[in-house]
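To the wet lab folks,

You asked to see what we're planning to order before we commit. Fair enough. Below is the target structure as tokens, and below that is the sequence we designed to fit it. If anything looks off to you, flag it before the synthesis order goes out.
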């Protein structure tokens, strides 16, 4: 068991789990943590599991930050898997939330893979089914209205569950907008708390080592080669520039929610 500083005063732990670049650290910071957050080109910024005691509605809570699983390097990916397992080793009840970035309503294979690995590796101490939280993050403002409809959220969750082997149960969903300005963190905090307060924490036990699947790693590496190819990368740079400065790029014409 891991014994972070101050954990003995905490009521429960919150672990936001997901792959690199989905905004886990930023979301934790919106709740009051002080994890390093930002952009690292071609890799995840978080390298090691870290802990921070925060106050949520008067309760001391242990926020846990860990790297995403999949990286371009095989060695880094395996080390990340160990860090994620370490993040699940604190002697506290847990609320586990999976964080995925909005991709126009499409689930990425690496997101499905990390959910499968964690769900297959963790059980409640009393063997009851664990209910997880799903956080869909970085939603463009022009898409946000679609995510607010219950049928849309149900459709997305059903597709995600169908894509997994572990078939997790999600008891709450938070749809968080892309918030580039840290001063808007209160907006994120409200949406996160609404979801986090809907479920009770579980005492958990790790029953299986978390290991990255070689086939999933190959798929991720292939996607990175395409993403950072000389053909695609310049267009991504233009997209990021216009999105951050103008924030006027619209997706209504191809949105799967229309």
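Sequence we intend to order:
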């Amino acid at each position: 068991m891991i014994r972070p500083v101050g954990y003995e005063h905490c009521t429960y732990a919150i672990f936001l789990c997901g792959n690199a670049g989905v905004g886990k650290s930023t979301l934790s910071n919106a709740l009051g943590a002080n994890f390093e957050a930002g952009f690292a080109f071609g890799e995840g910024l978080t390298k090691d599991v870290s802990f921070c005691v925060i106050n949520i509605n008067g309760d001391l809570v242990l926020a846990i930050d860990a790297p995403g699983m999949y990286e371009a390097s095989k060695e880094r990916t395996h080390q990340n898997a160990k860090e994620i397992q370490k993040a699940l080793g604190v002697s506290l009840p847990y609320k586990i939330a999976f964080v995925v970035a909005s991709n126009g309503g499409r689930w990425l294979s690496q997101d499905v893979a990390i959910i499968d690995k964690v769900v297959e590796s963790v059980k409640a101490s009393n063997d009851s089914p664990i209910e997880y939280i799903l956080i869909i993050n970085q939603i463009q403002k022009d898409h946000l209205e679609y995510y607010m409809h219950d049928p849309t959220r149900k459709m997305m969750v059903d597709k995600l569950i169908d894509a997994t082997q572990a078939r997790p149960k999600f008891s709450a969903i938070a749809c968080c907008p892309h918030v580039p300005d840290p001063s808007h963190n209160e907006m994120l905090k409200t949406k996160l708390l609404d979801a986090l307060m809907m479920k009770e924490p579980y005492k958990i036990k790790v029953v299986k080592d978390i290991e990255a699947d070689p086939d999933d790693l190959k798929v991720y590496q292939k996607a990175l080669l395409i993403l950072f190819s000389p053909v695609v990368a310049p267009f991504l740079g233009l997209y990021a520039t216009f999105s951050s400065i103008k924030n006027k790029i619209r997706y209504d014409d191809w949105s799967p929610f229309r």
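Structural context that might help your review: The helical segments are 24-30, 74-87, 109-121, 144-147, 150-163, 185-196, 214-227, 233-245. The first strand starts at residue 12 and ends at 17.

Thanks,
Computational group
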